[in-house]
Amino acid sequence: MAKEIFSPATLPPPVGYSHIAKVSRGSLVYIAGQVSSDAAGKLVGEGQFETQVEQVFRNLKIAVEAAGGVMADIVKMNIYLVAEVGQSEVPKLRAIRDRYVNTEKPPASTLVVVSRLARPEWLVEIEAVAMLDE
Predict the structure, then answer these.
(1) What is the DSSP string of the chain?
(2) What is the band of 112 on the pLDDT scale with cuts at 50, 70, 90?
(3) Minimal CA–CA distance to 118: which of 80, 62, 61?
């Protein structure tokens, strides 16, 4: 097996992510932080958190497929939310994410709250690492 995604019982139980993604062979693909802009660079969903999250995941899917993979190949995901997004919004992000990732073996993930992103209208940015079989 080229990749193993798991959470040992000796760590706190994860909710919607895995603690460990082990890659033993294959090609690693690093996907830069994706934001809620379309192919023309236009902002999608100004001030609308769920709309922005949906666009970010569409962009991640486009990126991983351009590299020859699928969303289930993502082994690590870093999510950055701006501080103005309340904690009550996080379940909405998870619901959208769960339509894109393998929920049986979700990627190892980190969620970070930041004061702002590179453009103030962006509410969320997600970067990822995928492992493609050779």
Answers:
(1) --EEEE--TTSPPPSSSBSEEEE-SSEEEEEEEE-SB-TTS-BSSTT-HHHHHHHHHHHHHHHHHHTT--GGGEEEEEEEEETTS-GGGHHHHHHHHTTTS-SSSPPEEEEEEES--SSTT--EEEEEEEEE--
(2) very high
(3) 80
Q: What are the backbone angles phi and psi of residue 127, rounded to the nearest 5°? A: -115, 155
Q: Identity (one letter) of the amino acid at 24?
A: S
What is the pLDDT averaged over residues 112-134?
95
Q: pLDDT confidence of 133, banded at 50, 70, 90? A: confident
